[in-house]
Task: structure prediction
Amino acid sequence: VENVRLLDRLSSRKAALGTLYLTATHVIFVENGSETRKETWVLHSQISSIEKQATTATGCPLLIRCKNFQIIQLVIPQERDCHDVYISLIRLARPVKYEELYCFSFNPKLDKEEREQGWKLVNLNEEYNRMGIPNSYWQISDVNRDYGVCDSYPTEVYVPKSATAHIIVGSSKFRSRRRFPALSYYYKDNNASICRSSQPLSGFSARCLEDEQMLQAIRKANPGSDFIYVVDTRPKLNAMANRAAGKGYENEDNYSNIKFQFIGIENIHVMRNSLQKMLEVCELKSPSMSDFLWGLENSGWLKHIKAIMDAGIFIAKAVAEEGVSVLVHCSDGWDRTAQVCSVASLLLDPYYRTMKGFMVLIEKDWVSFGHKFNHRYGNLDGDPKEISPVIDQFIECVWQLMEQFPCAFEFNERFLIHIQHHVYSCQFGNFLCNSQKERRELKIQERTYSLWAHLWKNRADYLNPLYRSDHSQTQGTLRPQMAPCNFLYKFWSGMYNRFEKGLHPRQSVTDYLMAVKEESQQLEEELEVLGERLANLQKSQLTDIKVESKQQDRSKQLGLSASNNSLANTPQDYSNDLKSFPSRSPSQGDEEDSALILTQDNLKSSDPDLSANSDQESGVEDLSCRSPSGGGCLPSEDSGKDSDEAVFLA
Amino acid sequence: MLRSSQPLTGPNRKRCREDEVLLGTVLDEGERGFIIDTRSAQAAKQARMTGGGTEPKSSYPRWRRLHRPLERGRLLQESFIKLVEACNDASVNMDRWLSRLESCRWLSHVKAALSTACLAAQCMDREEASVLVHGAEGTDTTLLVTALAQVILDPSCRTLVGFQGLLEREWIQAGHPFHLRCSRSAYSHARLKQEAPLFLLFLDCVWQLSRQFPFSLEFSERLLLTLFDNAYASAYGTFLCNNEKERCLCKVKENTHSLWAWLNEPEEKMKYLNPLYSHNSLVIWPSIEPQSIQLWQGLFFRWIRSSQYLDEAWAEIQQLVEGN
Result:
């Protein structure tokens, strides 16, 4: 469709005129005329809702809201075209078959072996080995090898040594969805563990010997403690209500040596509504501070984030400080349980704070344990009541932690944002379907590509320049303050206002520091090389010859491509070397070089599906007025009421 | 940009030729100017009853008057006290924290101040017009606006030395009554009439700018905290008294040491520099959307929570940059 206008939410003056294209997988808007030929690409999978608004003199507005919080406002000149686009998008955004998804047509031009290698990047067996399993307390069980015991669990589960197949099967019959207690994380320092399951089918008085034995087995697997915690992450009322439906929670009287604990995290419906309310606040036009804060509080979003975090902290403390194992469950053990186990693991184990470790964590606690990606994130058209921002909340918890502990994570905010983006994008096969069983049936690994390989390839974009594996913040357990710490939870505008460039600092500190770090490393290497050459020359006693500097080459290297493979596999260690590094003398033409680091061109912006933001000004927003009449207008003189012309009107 | 106090129009709409001529000479042929009055239109009108007022359009034809009410005095002090109480209140739940924060109104004041300063800057930079800023006395919100506008517009005010010069000029010499305003801070129960945290509000706004433009200010948060401390209690004479006249009478220059002298000593100075600084010759236009304005944790939670992890991060940044 031609002559479509793409409006900028913050400044109506920035409306762009162009052509709208609909393909099998994307909506594409191409701006007219400009030399940059700016394009905006949106995957159909990302579309959350489409709203047709009232026709105005300028055309028919169409508002597309995306799951990654992008909002596209289009104005289509002809009502008929607008309607056609609307109907088409509705259908395209609600696929009925997996084959309609982008991942089945996406072609990154890799051969079959590379595709396979990509899928092998994250290996859970290796991960459990890294934890120290199998050992005398824990073993791998193949009781679920054909998904015969639990179809939402993986084929390989890790259970206590004393949990026989009989016990496992018996326990699974007493658990909702047959999700029996299984190992999530083993803390080798003191043998405490985090196990996860779903709620027991205890009703008011039902018992199951095997289930009780299962919990005992978990306790016995930790000789350092004579009890285990059982943490129910639901609000007490909800859990009690479940009893009437024949489910419920563990009775301390029936299960020997458990200490039962409720940590109330609300359910998926509450969270869905919470996000909805928060997004409404984000969509307010020029809200006052008051509107914003009230709206944010009203949504309850940060309160929920804190609840998840507090649960994770409780569990991490129980394991690390008390040396007590914890069994976590919610209702079905695939939402809140996943969130809480992964937060706890992240706090406990620095490995999960590395890039690779984080990928492993998600594979383990979310993918392998059957988090219902399809239902929760709407890969296919389904029940809207199943949709909920569960993994988004986990990802935000990680971000909140990154803000509190800026040196503790190997990866940066962009890594988190891109992962969230791809949970919804269906461009890769990792987050499809509802279980490992379904993914294997669809042969996902043979027909799609792995996100992890893609991210790993671009890992230079995702590094945190402040991370050092030997930094105190990266050692051992992270201990966030629990109270008073309300103020520590910030609104994540990098995620929820991601596409509103006007709201964010123009210059990325992360990118700048990464560039500085890279350059320092290159210079160090060069120094080494020159040092060797000098040593060699001195040996051959040719003292007359001057050492040539490689200044010309260096300025090309400062183009800062991600081709420096020394950043590849291990976190960098820059602590001591930098101090001894001599500063460059002015005679070597430094000035232009340092300028290179700071220019926009060298800053990475590898956002998928987005066109580059070409505004060169250092400032943040175009301050010309946003009045409906558009154009430059002078702020008005006062009258009885405030008129809305100037931008800086309160 | 000019600053003044309110014209003494009074209930009978007095005129003053000299004042009109003065403002007339500021503008070039055909040029227009803006008067930014930091009181609401209502308050400005009411001021006439007590001898004050506004510039009537007829007498100042080439000046357009805009009202941007900014809080000051008792209400600003209350806002500050409430905020500090809220921050110190360990019993506040997450459910209630944001509304509690909102009820203090402090962040709204920050937003309003930034907004008005940006307006002044916009008039000068975009409309290329002269600006006159005044409130009632010209010693509080007026200085907040003019000083902040200069940080936004002028890169030389963003250097360590330039910023100190700005403070000296726009706050100290301009006669902000520090002695009256910065007497007891937020904990005093004697709600002093003249106490008001305008200077802190200014520092908060500057901190917001440093967050939005991490490369553009030569000084770090540490400087802002030090200035905050010294405005209330200082070993130096820089912030003493209420104006130049009093400082002369008290012989401040002869009897005390200057804060600037100490801050600029080579070893001391290092502590206040921003390792990310890189001269930015452009105007820095901040976002005043609520998402962009944050609570200044470094100040309001300074004694409540450890800044260890953030300090470590800055140390890391310092090392990376210096090492390079």
Summary: Chain A is about 35% helix and 10% strand. The radius of gyration of chain A is 28 Å.
